[in-house]
């Protein structure tokens, strides 16, 4: 049996025989990255002829950028060690002036020199253009805006976006986008990284030198890595934004759920068999609880109303609303059910507490104790299966119209009985 608590103003809480003294229970709760420019009109030298051969060797290479890089390195090395093209040719041996064979040889060398200069100029243009092509490849949107200009520059200003063969001839078959992208992909896989701008510029210059057009090279580059990486990066940003939004909503949902759970846990309790009971004036004291139909013994009449409060909370409330102590009922775990508002009067919206829109049935808090000379109690107060449940149960057959009487417990303050 749980305990009804009563307090006359200034007398404090008191509890039933099963509960510890109110003062002890309340006391146990605590608050609670330049390049070299070569001069034009230079004259031949034996070393220059050697360099020309190296360039022919480069052009004959298969479209393998790895081998191409090695050949380009050899070419660069010979170029770096070659004497200046502006050096005068060695004078003809004495007595051989006007030698026709020698003059013919000199003309051949001059022609080779002019060819080399033309190729060098074209390479320089390509080197200047490669970064722009690279940039447009990395940014597909930028590609649409800058590709024509970049292609025109790469083609020596011809304005053609397709004619790009370095020798002005037909474009090699491996420059077809599918083949070229496959070759680039091999390069990327071997390098295990496509981050280096130097690697990319070298790759672009290499395929342009082999005769691929700027447009072909650009298309292959876009297909292989940078464009894919850019698109992936854009997708990642979009996904990241979605995930952040989702996380924000989850946070809001969690906060709402936590608030709802807290409100539910602190909701006012209580219900009664309204089909069998009513509250009306009592001859014993103030309002009383009466049957409206015969009730068999063992019938559950309802659960005691109120918000669950700790002993400390209850004590605080009783300081400003002493009357609440007359209606607060101690539960089996030592907390209290408080069915009163801030004035201490019984209310369907007990206060203080988190907002709860549903009214609670406070009928059971009007049950009195049996007066002297009566048949005694006809209902018992028992702990329910849920925490905070205090059930009123008919402990004998009760006729219609009878008042329900319960026992508040031996420590209940009854000093005001008969004085109201
Ligand atoms: C939980 S209330 C019961 C409802 C109360 N009669 C009312 O009108 O609000 C408990 C208070 O009712 C009064 N009461 C209950 N039983 C009584 C009895 N047998 N004799 C005198 N007063 C009683 C006391 O004032 C007691 O503090």
From TrEMBL:
<feature type="region of interest" description="Disordered">
    <location>
        <begin position="80"/>
        <end position="99"/>
    </location>
</feature>
<feature type="region of interest" description="Disordered">
    <location>
        <begin position="1"/>
        <end position="48"/>
    </location>
</feature>
<dbReference type="Pfam" id="PF00856">
    <property type="entry name" value="SET"/>
</dbReference>
<feature type="compositionally biased region" description="Low complexity">
    <location>
        <begin position="1"/>
        <end position="28"/>
    </location>
</feature>
<feature type="region of interest" description="Disordered">
    <location>
        <begin position="112"/>
        <end position="165"/>
    </location>
</feature>
<feature type="compositionally biased region" description="Low complexity">
    <location>
        <begin position="112"/>
        <end position="127"/>
    </location>
</feature>
<feature type="domain" description="SET">
    <location>
        <begin position="275"/>
        <end position="409"/>
    </location>
</feature>
<dbReference type="InterPro" id="IPR046341">
    <property type="entry name" value="SET_dom_sf"/>
</dbReference>
<protein>
    <recommendedName>
        <fullName>SET domain-containing protein</fullName>
    </recommendedName>
</protein>
<dbReference type="InterPro" id="IPR001214">
    <property type="entry name" value="SET_dom"/>
</dbReference>
């Amino acid at each position: 049996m749980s305990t009804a608590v009563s307090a006359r103003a200034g007398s404090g809480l008191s509890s039933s025989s099963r509960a510890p003294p109110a003062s002890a229970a309340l006391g146990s709760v605590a608050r609670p990255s330049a390049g070299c420019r070569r001069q034009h009109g230079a004259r031949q030298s034996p070393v220059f002829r050697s360099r020309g051969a190296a360039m022919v060797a480069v052009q004959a290479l298969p479209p393998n950028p790895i081998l191409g890089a090695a050949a380009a390195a050899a070419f660069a090395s010979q170029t770096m060690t070659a004497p200046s093209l502006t050096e005068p040719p060695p004078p003809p041996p004495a007595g051989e002036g006007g030698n026709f064979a020698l003059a013919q040889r000199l003309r051949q060398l001059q022609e080779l020199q002019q060819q080399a200069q033309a190729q060098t100029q074209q390479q320089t243009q390509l080197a200047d253009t490669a970064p722009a092509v690279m940039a447009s490849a990395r940014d597909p949107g930028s590609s649409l805006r800058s590709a024509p200009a970049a292609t025109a520059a790469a083609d020596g200003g011809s304005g053609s976006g397709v004619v790009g063969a370095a020798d002005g001839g037909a474009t090699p078959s491996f420059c077809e986008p599918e083949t070229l992208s496959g070759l680039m992909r091999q390069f990327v896989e071997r390098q295990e990284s496509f981050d280096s701008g130097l690697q990319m510029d070298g790759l672009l210059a290499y395929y342009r030198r082999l005769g691929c057009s700027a447009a072909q090279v650009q298309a292959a580059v876009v297909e292989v890595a940078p464009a894919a990486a850019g698109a992936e990066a854009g997708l990642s940003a979009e996904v990241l934004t979605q995930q952040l939004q989702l996380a924000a909503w989850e946070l809001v949902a969690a906060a709402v759920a936590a608030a709802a759970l807290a409100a539910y846990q602190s909701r006012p309790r209580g219900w009664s068999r309204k089909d069998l009971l009513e509250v009306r004036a009592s001859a014993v004291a103030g309002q009383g609880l009466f049957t409206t139909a015969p009730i068999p013994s063992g019938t559950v009449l309802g659960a005691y109303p109120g918000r669950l409060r700790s002993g400390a909370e209850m004590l605080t409330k009783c300081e400003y609303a002493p009357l609440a102590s007359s209606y607060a009922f101690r539960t089996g775990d030592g907390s209290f059910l408080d069915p009163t508002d801030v004035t201490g009067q019984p209310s369907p919206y007990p206060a203080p507490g988190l907002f709860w829109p549903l009214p609670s049935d406070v009928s059971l808090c009007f049950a009195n104790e049996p007066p002297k000379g009566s048949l005694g109690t006809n209902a018992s107060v028992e702990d329910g299966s849920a925490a905070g449940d205090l059930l009123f149960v008919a402990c004998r057959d009760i006729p219609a119209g009878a008042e329900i009487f319960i026992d508040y417990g031996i420590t209940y303050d009854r000093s005001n009985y008969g004085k109201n």
